[in-house]
Amino acid sequence: MTTPAPGTPSLGADLLAIYRELEAMHAWRGWHWWPDADPFEVIVGSILVQNTAWTNVERALERLRAAEALTPAAMASLSDDQLEDLVRPSGQYRQKARKLRAFLALCDRHGGLDALLALPPDTLRAELLATWGIGPETADCIVCYAACAPVFVVDAYTDRIFTRLGFEPADGRTYAGWQQLFAANLPTDRDLWARYHALVVLHAKHTCRKLRPACDTCTLAARCPTRRSSGRAP
Predict the structure, then answer these.
(1) Which of the four, 68, 103, 202, 205, has the lowest number of CB atoms within 10 Å?
(2) What is the pLDDT of residues 54-113, one digit of tens each?
(3) How far, in whole angstroms, is CA 48 from its chain's centroid?
(4) What is the rounded distance in angstroms from the CA atom of residue 6 to the CA atom of residue 185?
(5) Are 138 and 163 within one domain?
């Protein structure tokens, strides 16, 4: 498949068609982040999920919730040992506790969480990226799911699925390249972008798996050149 030029109607139509097919396959499974989720819980989850499975994050969030520590003020009042113990199920717990501390310090510098999230999206993203332990994917998760601003979140699942489908960003298979491909060819709609990323995650975990993709159950197989050529995605 040759990817249409960025910004062309055919590329946007293809991306929207894939979105609709993903939703038909996976919407019933639910989402990691709901539209009405508590912003601070979303942020904590986006930091804790780095290099671990979401099930481990859920265990850490449950411990934080039971300790009534899922507000900026309550978390800031914990000792280092207490915070590390509560987030231990997420793995790399010392580093992740430090990352949460760094985010809390960012909140303080801006007068609290609400004031931070009210910054213009580009400013908020820049502030997050300047914070220790927060990279592009985590920053964009926070902007999209906590601040409810339109930014398309990219991850390794995005690269896997859309490379298999034959897409190639004009600027290469980088974070920025994939993000530009989606942002330039989809309507600027925060809810659409948030749901699209969640569907990509679900599809990569349940169908378009890294080693054993379930091509026979995937309704995208008809448009997937990798599936058609080999019967099994690499």
Answers:
(1) 68
(2) 899 999 999 999 999 999 999 999 999 999 999 999 999 999 999 999 999 999 999 999
(3) 12
(4) 7
(5) no
Apex 148 CA angle, 145 and 152, nearest 5: 65
Q: Which two tokens stand for residue 76?
A: 């800031």
Rounded distance between C-alpha atoms, residue 37 and residue 18, angstroms: 26
Question: Domain limits at 22?
Answer: 9-31+153-230
Are 44 and 27 in a shared domain? no
The CATH number of residue 80's host domain is 1.10.340.30
Question: Cα 129–132–138 angle (5° rounding)?
Answer: 50
The conformation of residue 2, written as its DSSP 8-state character, comes to P
**Distance between CA atoms of 197 and 26, rounded to whole angstroms?**
12
Q: How far from the centroid of its chain's Cα atoms is residue 159's Cα?
A: 13
206 and 162 co-located in one domain: yes
Torsional sign, CA 7, 193, 126, 138: negative
Residue type, 123: T
